[in-house]
Amino acid sequence: MQRRPERDLARVAAVDAAALERDALAALAEAETADDVERVRVEYLGRKSALKLALREVRDRETGIALNTLRETLEAAIDAREAELSRAELDRRLTEERVDVTMPGERALRGHLHLITQIRREFEDIFLGLGYTVVDGREVETTRYNFDALNFPPGHPSRSPLQTLFLDDETVLRTETSPAQIRTMEAQEPPVYMVSLGRVYRRDTPDATHSPTFHQAEGLAVDEGITLADLLGTLDYLCKQLFGSDRKTDFRTHHFPFTEPSVEAYVSCHLCDGSGCTVCRHSGWIEVGGSGMVDPNLFEFVGYDPERYTGFAFGWGLERIAVLRHGIPDLRELWRNDPRLLGQF
Description:
Blueprint: H1 6-14, H2 17-30, H3 34-45, H4 50-56, H5 61-96, H6 115-129, E1 133-135, E2 140-142, H7 143-146, E3 166-168, E4 171-173, H8 179-187, E5 192-201, E6 213-223, H9 228-243, E7 249-256, E8 259-268, E9 285-294, H10 296-302, E10 310-317, H11 318-326, H12 339-342
Parallel strand pairs: 1-5
Antiparallel strand pairs: 2-4, 3-4, 5-6, 6-10, 7-8, 8-9, 9-10
């Protein structure tokens, strides 16, 4: 049988329970923080403490009872001192860290809708107030609805893969939201008063005024007796709602495959108020978007009687509205998600 080293026997014999308890309680009384209490715990009850080492060498019942009683006494004293300091810390915080509920609180930062989403909803609200309906179209369309139904001739440049994103020979990412108008006319008889808004795609190189993905808002009205004057009045009302009642509007003839006659809408420059500057190229006017009276060929495509019904259509870019209304120099800034810019709106 292996004999116990003499130095271990001496260490056990040297443990004076009464003295150890007195020293531990004195150290606890001097402890002022939770860290101080933890140091006392490690020193007197840790794995390498004199009490723990002595307990490992106990061989008689009386010594074991005495040392275990001492251990329980010290554990209870340490827990009590820890609770006492915790209560004292709580009392101190309640006294010193009072909250004046009458003082203004810290402002919580909240997110908000993106500027393009704000303009989209504003656009929708304007036309809902005029009695129009909002129609969501398909972003993936067939060439039949994206080109054929809109009166684009076979050799039109927009049919080229250099300008349109083709998924296959007969499927494209829509270049405008107009296909939703064709589908709506196919699904119902006149009168039709609708707007369609959403993302459109074109093979453009991103720059200050162009993007391969942008948002378009288009409107269509089909009924008996609709004239060009109805279109101009509607767009004048729309411009004043979007840009302010003091903004002037102008309309100039143009050409689009799906309208005849066609006009482009202009709004007076927001910077120079029409007097001329570099933004409006010293003309005093900024182009907003295209429009015109619906070409009778489109009515024949959807089965409407062109002798009975007339209509107008228009299409504007939401990013362009944002740039014109807020003077943003580069539309790419709208999608860089810089909170210093977007937080202003």
